[in-house]
Amino acid sequence: MLAPALISAISALLFSTTLAAQQQSGTSPSNNQQARPTSNSRYFWYSRDGRREAAFIEPGVYAQVELSPDNKLAVVERRNARLAVNDPNQRYDLWLANFSEMTFVRWTLSPDNPRDPVWAPDSRRIAYRVRSLENRELREVVVGSSKESVLDSSKFIKYPDDWTRDGKWLLYHTDAPDTVALLPMSGHEGTRVILDKPGGRNDMRVSPNGRWIAYGSNVNGAWEIYLASFPSFDRARQISNGGGVQVRWRRDGKELFYLTSDSKMLAQAIDPLAGKQIGSPRVLFQTAANPAPEVYLYSVTGDGKRFLIREGDQ
Questions:
Q1: Average confidence score pLDDT of the chain
Q2: Taking the alpha carbons of 41, 42, 47, 51 in that order, is the dihedral positive or negative?
């Protein structure tokens, strides 16, 4: 078995060669092309100071990634290997990485293209959407099982965004009509529509204390990060300046992370009680990711110290 240091060195050399080729061909991440998955995608761990090492997850065709709240697992969207790279169906499966056991296995067996996974607060379940000719559903699957259960079914595509920390509500949005809603995960309450007006919102994340919501919006023409009261969406104010996508909270609610249009990872200190910025956003490190709204290329540990980021020939 190769030593971890040697693996990281080999990975860094391969990546630098790929990046150089991108720059020569005019397809570097700075061009901000669509964040499409490729056969050369792989995952790297970053520390806050920008130190980088390869994750054990094998290279493949990947899209989004979500770390579990306990940081022990990660669910990733992986392109079906039986399809050609240019296949228009773009079928994905959900795969599960277990960091303590160093295992990486296919989780869902659905032909309905499961996407946009979000973890329950207990790190035991995920919710996700499926879209096929017959189904527009939100589903749930439990760790250790591939059996799916239907949470909601309708004619509209519903994009799951977050699971509230008390486990009671699944936050999702729709494009047609343009709404944001809460789906009850227990009890007998009905779905609550909390916002029903245009605004181009996505990547919505509820604060750990349940008082605020961070999200991306292009309501003013460019994608920026906003912070508002939850669930009313009142007192909305712009957090980023000059572009921002893929916002995430630190577990204690005292910091927000997001990617800029030039692929930098930024951190913004937040007062979790007042929902206000503290100072200006701070650049943590430069990534080689190719950020875009609605495609989470990274996830962050609850303490905000480590970032799992998808990179590759994009």
A1: 85
A2: negative
For residues 163-167, average pLDDT: 96
Let me know how long the chain is: 314
Q: What is the pTM of this model?
A: 0.85
- Helices and strands per DSSP (H, E), number in the chain: 1, 24
Dihedral in degrees, nearest 10, Cα atoms 28, 76, 297, 252: -160
54: nearest Cα among 3, 17, 94, 95: 3
Rounded Cα distance, 3 and 53, in Å: 12
Cα separation of 78 and 42, whole Å? 11
Burial class (CB within 10 angstroms; exposed 0-12, middle 13-18, buried 19+) of 296: buried
Alpha carbon 88 to chain centroid distance?
23
Amino acid identity of 167? G
Confidence of residue 284 (pLDDT cuts 50, 70, 90): very high
Residue 306 pLDDT: 98
Q: Which two tokens stand for residue 37?
A: 């998955």
SS3 281: strand
Query: What six digits make up the tokens of 287?
Result: 């990534």
Q: pLDDT per residue over 20-78, tens digit each?
A: 333 333 333 333 334 454 457 899 999 999 999 999 999 999 999 999 999 999 999 99
For residues 272 and 263, the answer to whether their CB atoms sit within 8 Å is no
Beta bridge partners, 311, equal 42
Per-residue DSSP letter, 190: P
Q: Which residue has the tokens 């399809």?
A: 83
CATH number for the domain formed by residue range(s) 4-25+35-311: 2.120.10.30
Task: Tally Cβ neighbours within 10 Å of residue 203.
Answer: 24
CA distances (Å), 101 to each of 73, 82, 96, 97, 252, in order?
Answer: 10, 27, 11, 9, 27
What is the tens place of the pLDDT at every residue in 181-239? 999 998 778 999 999 987 789 999 999 999 999 999 998 889 999 999 999 999 999 99
- Domain range list for the chain: 4-25+35-311
